[in-house]
Amino acid sequence: MHEPIVWIRGERAGLGPFSSNLVDLYWQWEQDPGVLVGYGRQTPDSLENRREGFQHQARGTDDQLRFTVYDVTTDPPTPAGTTAVLIDHHVRTGEFVIQLGPASRGNGIGTEATRLTLDYAFHVTNLRCVHLSVLSPNLAAIRAYEKAGFRRIGERRNSGYWLGELANETLMDAIPADFPGPSAVRQAVESDR
Ligand SMILES: CC(C)(COP(=O)(O)OP(=O)(O)OC[C@H]1O[C@@H](n2cnc3c(N)ncnc32)[C@H](O)[C@@H]1OP(=O)(O)O)[C@@H](O)C(=O)NCCC(=O)NCCS
């Protein structure tokens, strides 16, 4: 087994490439009820469809940031989840999404992976604003996003479901001026000089 590639890392989480070697694991995480409910998806996906979807995602890298999130507290680092930013080049913005496998939740990995993805989006991809929407009852996600540098900008009413009940969506955004730092991207660039 080769050591996985981790491009930028914090104390608990790191970001590495989205990889065809891990697509079955991505699929497994995505079918967890916590992820289906959090994403508002109502039916499980098939592994065959997910593998085909991966091929499409792998070809679209000009318009998307996609990362495997690693738990870097283990040696070697363990795959823990994925993050993505879907880019709108016309206005230099992007929409953020994240999911972690059930075993990796609740240890600060989601917060740090979110912060590292913002770091990359602002300092490598040069986006001016990253935004997201999250079902308002998803309190753990909202808390993690706030700790990572997102702030609440509003609420869209009656626009989703949470465990069978109609729910609002909380809208959040982050801009480079709010980025708390330190920047793992800057550290990686400056340590190469
Ligand atoms: C949402 C998700 C990415 C968060 O990652 P995580 O590693 O579990 O989150 P963290 O441990 O970094 O932070 C969670 C925070 O929420 C808090 N929290 C957990 N449950 C909570 C609840 N019911 N109410 C309020 N806060 C809660 C935790 O205490 C922690 O805050 P703290 O560090 O101040 O104590 C992860 O849980 C996940 O993948 N969930 C399933 C998919 C999903 O919902 N994705 C988001 C779709 S928009």
Automatic annotation (TrEMBL):
Family annotation (PANTHER family): GNAT-FAMILY ACETYLTRANSFERASE (PTHR43415:SF3), SPERMIDINE N(1)-ACETYLTRANSFERASE (PTHR43415)
InterPro entries linked: Acyl_CoA_acyltransferase (IPR016181), GNAT_dom (IPR000182)
Protein name (database record): GCN5-related N-acetyltransferase
SUPFAM superfamilies: Acyl-CoA N-acyltransferases (Nat)
Species, as recorded: Frankia casuarinae (strain DSM 45818 / CECT 9043 / HFP020203 / CcI3)
N-acetyltransferase domain sequence ranges: 13-173
Taxonomy, superkingdom: Bacteria
Gene Ontology MF: a single term: acyltransferase activity, transferring groups other than amino-acyl groups
